[in-house]
Amino acid sequence: MTLKTVDPVLGETQTDARRKLDALFRRQAPALLRFLSRRTNPEEAQDLAQEAFLRLTHAAGKQALQKPEAYLGRIARNLLRDRAKSVSGRRERSHAVLEPEAHATSDGDPHLALEARQLLERHEAAVLKLKPKTREVYLRHRVDGQTYPQIAAALGIGVSAVEKHMMKAIAAVDRSLGRP
């Protein structure tokens, strides 16, 4: 005779809880991967999906989840937001100056100046392709040096909307500059 232990939080056996999580994974993993892949590269999408399910499993072990699918979606969005903040912070700390004169050496190497001008032109073209509000948010932050809360107040939108516009702008500029 085998004795089944009942999880006090979930109110079910650990085997049943694992089966439910496994079924949830089988149902939700493809859609979650599509969602994440549209917002990041495929390898990172796999890592984020795995992290999302790990966090869901951890949360399910602590409390009963009424809507695990919705909770999983929230976890995935939070992971993307956290990733964007860390990527944006790294980029801002290592933000290259896009002025051709700044890249030319003291001996006036014309090749370096040409590369810098071409980089600047590609950057400007990418910024011009952005949707108007996204472009305005991007320029207010990168050119005018405004903080996200300042931009949000000036445009009458939330800070999270500013973050989303910045994520879109940074991704579009990176794609046009051939950055991963």
TrEMBL record:
Protein name: RNA polymerase sigma factor
Presence of the UniProt keyword Transcription in the record: yes
Family: Belongs to the sigma-70 factor family. ECF subfamily.
Single GO MF descriptor: sigma factor activity
Biological process (GO), any one: DNA-templated transcription initiation
Gene3D superfamilies for the chain: 1.10.1740.10, Winged helix-like DNA-binding domain superfamily/Winged helix DNA-binding domain
Species of provenance: Caulobacter radicis
Domain RNA polymerase sigma-70 region: 24-86
Alphabetized UniProt keyword annotations: Sigma factor, Transcription, Transcription regulation
Region described as Disordered: 86-108
Residue span(s) of domain RNA polymerase sigma factor 70 region 4 type: 124-171
Top-level taxon: Bacteria
